[in-house]
UniProtKB/TrEMBL annotation, chains A, B:
Pfam family, one: Hexapep_loop
Gene3D superfamilies: Hexapeptide repeat proteins
Entry GO MF terms: transferase activity
Record flagged with keyword RNA-binding: no
Protein name: Putative glucosamine-1-phosphate N-acetyltransferase / UDP-N-acetylglucosamine pyrophosphorylase
UniProt cross-references to InterPro entries, sorted A to Z: Hexapep_loop (IPR040730), Trimer_LpxA-like_sf (IPR011004)
SUPFAM superfamilies in UniProt: Trimeric LpxA-like enzymes (SSF51161)
Domain of life: Bacteria
Transmembrane portions of the chain: none
Native organism: Syntrophobacter fumaroxidans (strain DSM 10017 / MPOB)
Entry keyword set: Transferase
Length: 473, 473
């Protein structure tokens, strides 16, 4: 495994070249993180459909248990159990808009990962930076467990566990544990742990920060280890079922075939689960004893247990919903953790929006009314009062609004309108609206998906590496 | 599947460009042979070990259910459930000998398949032609079910079902159903059906031809169909078990893991089977209720049922052994069909040699003595008398020897010595002699083999094709 160890040293060096005091060495986070034999246990999965240009290039890298769809180049990187989903990349002939100009895209967009170490990470969407229409670049970067890199080119940066960067260019920055950033760009910034931050230049800024003790209870993390705490443990308990799906790809015992073609064979669907039409269940989603109404979805790393989604509900990457009943068109943001129980159920009214990285872990039954925004940390009805605002009230805001730990500044109408517009786009992209005459989305385009599995080299000088590969349809 | 149909037309055209009256069109043999959906059912398997240079390139081709080990380039070809085993290719720095000269090999040898259609075919060994040390070329060629292309570069030719070309350069030729040729070279020749022909220029020539009615009974074949008859049916009855191993590669139910690392996970081992040490069971071998003594082997397409191999027995590619007991160091040649029964067992004494393409299908118990050569068609002890010669008697021959349908001309000693030398080489290459201090062979080198599975494209313009690929360790 000498080459593999050298590779890990290389990505540490490359990230460190960018970082500044006091955070200057990512080595302790990743050097011994994964036991070496785990790097050859699972292969890399490459998906092909007739609907997405597909080209996969990988060199001097490891991609154990990782999943690729779309165009992707990986060089001198470690992608451990990571999803690179390129089904929303721009195509040749599309246009990007910037300052009123429309510029044509010259080639099919490609996700290019270099000198990086991503563990249990999700990469999705396309490069939001109009300056780079054809390349969604991830370079010299470390992303820890269950980080989301969503439409965000990123260079020389560190993302903590459960961190999300969303539609943001990130350079030479550190984004802390369980932090969410949608800020257009970050340059040489350090985003503290547990910070949820949405900024649209000249329009609004919205920020919530978790209390340190709450964060410590839900996402405990020490360099070199796996994330623990209530959320970390909750995810870890279900990980072996997900792992089995990837082991299965290599000939191990199967579990029953999902009911719908749009349920990935790399997802877990178990117990008394009902899957409606135009539902998307992505690879590495976990669905148990759950009703997924028509047009609802569960993205990568989502966990749905004892949940009831009435229909057209969006569960963004990493969202977790336990003993909850969602009305129609509810949006649950990235990495949220919503946990009711049979004694203390959670209900969410239709068209409500759960902010990314919200924790609702109930001690009593809580009922979120329709068309409300919820955020922060909620255990009971009193917490809810401090952590919710109706979309109508928020739309009327033009200035500052403070509720609990949330500070909103700017035009509420722009925030609400932007969010609703984005949810509509997500529903359409997922194929949730196919029955009502919209075009095909992911749920339909993946119906005839095929998967190839490439194993890592198990002995010799290149042991632990993925074979050098170019694969194209 | 338009591209795939175009590809099939292309390989038909390319073969036809070489062929002469009266055999001028291979179209009826392959055009409708495989139902189109079968071309996307199984993926292609690529093996990696730390002991063989590995580079796989495939373009504009289909390789459904095929297995590759070593260096191989496939272009504009159809390889259906075909094995391309490059574990005996020459390496850079090896030398080839010719007319007393030793010439160094400049690059790792590669098997290069172009414009060809191979179905259930085995390709193995390395290019015997000293004029092409680095390329084992298979071009503009059609090979039907269970043909063996062993060390034989081949161009513009047709091989019938169960035909074997062994250490022979074949050009613009036709080799009939169940024919075996080891003749150095064939140029614009037509080898009739059921002909077993060994020729070493200036040394000896050995020829046996099956009676037409025997051949018709054992290998019945019509253009466009699968081979039938007793051997064809025998193989077909066990094919679904083999297919299941390749389906399994894509996540279908598994069968128990073989007992030894040198038993391929793409072999079938079932019933009361005992596998000794340093045994090689290659992919697509079928072993049932059989004892395989130390250092014995079963190559691709071998079927062993109720057999007892005492040790260091070689079953060459496609050999079938049913209710037979083999002493030590017995050699069973390519595609032989040896079938005793519990009432009429077959025993073969040590160091005996069963010629390639021998049929022994017993009506009474038959006991082949040690150090004998057997050939042809044997049903009882009377047949045996006409179809056997002791190696000592044969060694003394210098001139002509006729027995039954066999005609041998030349120096018997050269024939026997050459055969024994080759068997020793095969044992060593297989790793059968590892326990007695020889180097590693296939049985040992494959202990940590890993397999990648690449699926064919299931929809869109390229449906039915393998993704364009380059894969290298």
């Amino acid at each position: 495994m000498e080459q593999l160890q050298r590779l890990i040293g290389h990505v540490i060096d490359r990230a460190n070249l960018h970082l500044k005091e006091p955070f200057t060495d990512v080595g302790p986070y990743v050097r011994e993180l994964i036991p070496l034999p785990s790097f050859t246990r699972q292969g890399a999965v490459y998906a092909f459909t007739g609907h997405h240009p597909a080209r996969y290039v990988i060199r001097e890298s490891n991609a154990a248990g990782s999943y690729f769809l779309g165009q992707c180049v990986v060089e001198r990187s470690v992608l451990f159990q990571t999803d690179v989903r390129g089904d929303e990349l721009k195509c040749k002939g599309d246009t990007v808009s910037c300052s009123g100009m429309k510029v044509p895209v010259q080639d099919h967009e490609v996700i290019h990962v270099r000198n990086s170490y991503l563990v249990n990470t999700l990469v999705h969407s396309n490069c939001h930076d109009p300056g780079s229409p054809e390349v969604f670049d991830i370079r010299d970067t470390i992303a820890m467990h269950y980080a989301n890199i969503h439409g965000s080119p990123i260079r020389g940066s560190y993302l903590g566990p459960f961190a999300t960067v969303d539609l943001t260019s990130v350079q030479d920055s550190v984004v802390g544990t369980f932090s969410y950033v949608q800020a257009g760009e970050l340059y040489r910034e350090r985003v503290e742990d547990g910070c949820v931050w949405v900024r649209a230049k000249d329009k609004f800024e919205c920020r919530y920060t978790f209390d340190r003790d709450v964060l410590e209870r839900y996402v405990r993390f020490k360099p070199g280890g796996e994330p623990g705490g209530i959320i970390g443990d909750f995810v870890a308990q279900r990980k072996s079922d997900i792992d089995a799906r990837f082991d299965m790809a290599e000939g191990h015992p199967d579990v029953p075939v999902p009911e719908r073609p749009s349920v990935s064979r790399f997802a877990v669907v178990k117990g008394n689960a009902r899957i409606g039409s135009d539902v998307l269940v992505a690879q590495r989603a976990y669905v148990e004893d759950t009703v997924m109404g028509d047009g609802s979805n569960a993205q990568e790393n989502c966990i749905l247990v004892g949940a009831n989604l009435e229909g057209r509900d969006v569960t963004a990457h990493g969202g977790k919903i336990v003993f909850a009943r969602l009305g129609k068109n509810v949006f649950v943001g990235f990495n949220s953790f919503l946990r009711g129980s049979s004694d203390h159920p959670l209900t969410i009214g239709e068209h409500s929006i759960v902010m990314p990285h919200t924790i609702a872990d109930l001690d009593e039954a809580v009922d979120i009314p329709p068309r409300h925004l919820v955020y922060g940390y909620i255990r009971n009805r009193a917490d809810l009062a401090a952590n919710t605002v109706s979309l109508d009230d928020l739309s009327r805001c033009d200035g500052e609004l403070k509720r609990g730990n949330l500070v909103f500044r700017g035009k509420g109408a722009a925030f609400v309108h932007g969010f609703e517009h984005r949810i509509e786009h997500i529903l359409e992209a997922n194929g949730a609206l196919f029955a009502s005459g919209h075009g095909m989305g992911h749920a339909q385009k993946n119906a005839n998906i095929s998967h190839s599995v490439v194993r890592h080299i198990t002995e010799g000088a290149l042991q632990g590496l993925h074979p050098a590969m170019e694969l194209q349809a």
